[in-house]
């Protein structure tokens, strides 16, 4: 990212004009990462295949053995999302983003760290589930601005992959990811009928994607979730509706990556994003917001 990229992003954040997406890397240092969790479950259930650090595949194996997917998801939450200490470091992604007057936050994480950070910042967030599965709670009015108040005072935190308040809502196994993708494609191809119809991408979210610059935090180049978000949500928009700028905080390349490997990665991004103007920060989410806070003078 160049100086002008940082300056533009800070102005947009201060104006409440950014739509942020938070991925697993935003929780690094607070929660265990997927690979470590997969290894623990693989050991416990004697996972027989080589991809033992692929959480979605390992958890599908566990769910088949237990023959109770909701039970497995509940156990997963109980083991890994209980008793988490809310972050208070200003460079933590949740804390940093909660200080900007954004009306909508999108996340593929299950935790409530963003909600807790928003409350600590004096705001009243509304936690909303993406209805990707049958029977998901759905309120068509959940995205309406609060009566008499500012949307930034009561922002929506939209959990695309479920959250820890509803175990059945988690997009956790490989089958869940496939079902989510199928539901996203079907949703995109639906005929518009009424504003109250169940939709994975409600009008308020569609409007944010179309009118606001996007900021992806905590994703990696090989992250399938990141690819689905881009292909299913961003690139699904008509070209004339896309904003001209996306900022991506990418997890670092492996230790020891050569200059040639870095150039290859950058060339890949240029080709992949093609018609989108993208600025990329190579580093951890915490490093990204440490730099942003430094450039912003430490305050929104």
Précis, in short:
The protein has 300 residues and is α/β, with parallel strands linked by helices.
How many separate helices? 11
Distance between the termini: 20 Å
For the largest beta-sheet, the strand count, sense and barrel status come to:
7 strands, parallel
| N to C succession of SSEs | HEHHHHEHEEHHEHEHEH
**Strand content range:** 5-15%
Q: Let me know the number of strands.
A: 7
Word description of this protein:
By secondary structure, the chain is an alpha/beta fold. It has two domains: 236 residues; 49 residues, no CATH class. It contains eleven helices and seven strands. It has a seven-stranded parallel sheet, with helices on one face.
How would the blueprint of this fold be written?
Elements: H1 3-14, E1 19-22, H2 34-44, H3 55-66, H4 69-80, H5 93-98, E2 104-107, H6 113-120, E3 126-129, E4 156-159, H7 174-188, H8 203-211, E5 214-219, H9 224-234, E6 246-250, H10 259-273, E7 278-282, H11 285-295
Parallel strand pairs: 1-2, 1-5, 2-4, 3-4, 5-6, 6-7
Provide the descriptors you would attach to this structure in a database record.
single chain; 300 residues; alpha/beta; 2 domains; 7-stranded parallel β-sheet; 7 strands; globular
């Amino acid at each position: 990212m160049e100086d002008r990229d940082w300056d533009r992003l800070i102005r947009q954040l201060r104006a409440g004009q950014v739509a942020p997406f938070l991925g697993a890397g935003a929780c690094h240092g607070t929660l265990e990462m997927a690979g470590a969790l997969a290894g623990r479950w693989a050991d416990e259930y004697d996972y027989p295949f080589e991809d033992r650090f692929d959480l979605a595949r390992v958890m599908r194996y566990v769910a088949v053995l237990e023959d109770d997917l909701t039970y497995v998801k509940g156990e997963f939450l109980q083991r890994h999302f209980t008793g988490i200490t809310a972050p208070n470091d200003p460079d933590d992604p949740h804390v940093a983003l909660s200080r900007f007057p954004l009306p909508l936050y999108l996340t593929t994480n299950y935790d409530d760290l963003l909600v807790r950070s928003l409350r600590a910042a004096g705001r009243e967030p509304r936690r909303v589930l993406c209805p990707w599965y049958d029977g998901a709670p759905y309120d068509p009015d959940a995205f309406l601005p609060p009566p008499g108040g500012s949307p930034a005072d009561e922002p929506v935190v939209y959990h695309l992959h479920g959250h820890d308040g509803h175990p059945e809502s988690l997009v956790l196994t490989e089958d869940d990811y496939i079902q989510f993708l199928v539901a996203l494609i079907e949703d995109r191809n639906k005929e518009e009928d009424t504003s109250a119809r169940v939709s994975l991408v409600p009008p308020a979210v569609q409007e944010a994607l179309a009118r606001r610059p996007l900021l992806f935090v905590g994703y990696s180049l090989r992250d399938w979730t990141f690819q689905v978000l881009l292909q299913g949500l961003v690139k699904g928009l008509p070209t004339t509706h896309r904003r001209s700028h996306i900022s991506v905080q990418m997890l670092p390349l492996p230790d020891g990556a050569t200059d040639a490997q870095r150039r290859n990665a950058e060339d890949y991004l240029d080709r992949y994003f093609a018609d989108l103007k993208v600025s990329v920060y190579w580093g951890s989410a915490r490093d990204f917001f440490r730099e942003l806070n430094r450039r912003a003078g430490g305050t929104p």
